[in-house]
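Revision sheet: structure tokens.
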Amino acid sequence: MKKWLILIVVVALVVVVWLVARNRVMVPIWAQPKFGPVTRGDIRVPITAAGLIHASEVIEIKPEASGVVTDVPVIEGTYLKRGDTLVVINPDDEQRMVDRAQANYDRAEALLRQARVAVEQAQVKIDGARAQLAELEAQAAITQFELEKQESYAREGRAEVYSAQSLNDARARHAIVLAQQASARVAIRAAELARQDTEAAVASQEAVVKSARKELEDAQSRLRKTTVLAPRDAIVTQVFVKAGNLVQSGTQSIMGGSQLMMLADVSKKKVIARLDEADYGRVLAISPVDALPDMPGLRQAAAENAEQIEKRTGRVRVTVDAFPDQHFEGRIERVEPQGKLNAGSSIIQFDVHVEITDPQRHMLPLGAQAQVEFTVESAVGVLRVPAEAVKTFEDQRGVYVKTTPAPGSGEQWGKRFVACRFGVSDGEYTQVIEALGGFEIKEGLEVYTRLPQELTEE
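Predicted:
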């Protein structure tokens, strides 16, 4: 009896399944529809550009002194404070340069003292010649008086006090004194010219002393700089020397000197992203005024456009492969005006400098590949549907809303087309601005993202 009951139940189940299967069309999985909900949220339309992470400034370190490296107390990755030791150079070579420069300076000083003594000696000669001239002028006055007295006696015929010989002697004495005066004036002029020569020699020697002093100061400075110090807070990115290497001064060598290491100022970090020409205008529209190319009229026009000024935040989002689950905030710092031809293609790209402002920017490694997202359009807290749900029916764009099939229709899935006005779309979601025809689109409604096979339009 129990076996018969089991058999009857099995037969009944088979009949029920057959009846249900006869009234239900079996649709393969690939032909079945897909649905998505209407949600409320934010939509961002980004433009992406790739670039490398750079330090705000890269510092090349070259020595001012020459010699053999005796110590390099830093390695790549060492963080330095200003004044920390980078490289130590044997000071012997520079000490010899200081000694040589000191000797040259002492010699130049001695020659300058000699030149100044020569000026004083020339002045003594001038003073002596002028004194002699003054003496001769006094003698000329006496001889002139005696000559005039003899000529007066001659005119008066006073034979007792006058003779031809005495008149000739007076004339001769006066002529000799006048000749000596002329010679004294020539001597004065010669002494003045000699003094000018000695003054020129002093000026020339002062220049030699100045040059020798500068060479001595430079040599002393290079001697002090045989210990190379960090010019500012920075991190060591590359080291090119080790103990035992011979290095040349960057100021003395015609080859530009030896490269010791590279430092990076990481107080700021930035990405230099390459932007496609097609996206240049849209990124320019969201860049801060002070980041725009400094071209005539461009910044002024941007500053006067009140409608656009609020959009010019310059905020961007930076992602790196090293931290795939994180994003870092940044700000457009500068947009370059000159495009660059991408090597091996005909694509023009523009460099955009993005300062990384995120508090966690210290995590980002220099030289890492970064993706920069520029949000050129956005909508906050709006109704949105999956982008695949936007369909076209009779030249109208809208969505198919999931409904309950009408009784007796034979349809397996109910649907209703609702025409809509759409806003921004990021490829994943599309903003619903308004549903047309009196239908209300609400959160939680199910819409078709893929129509079943019988509803798919050709």
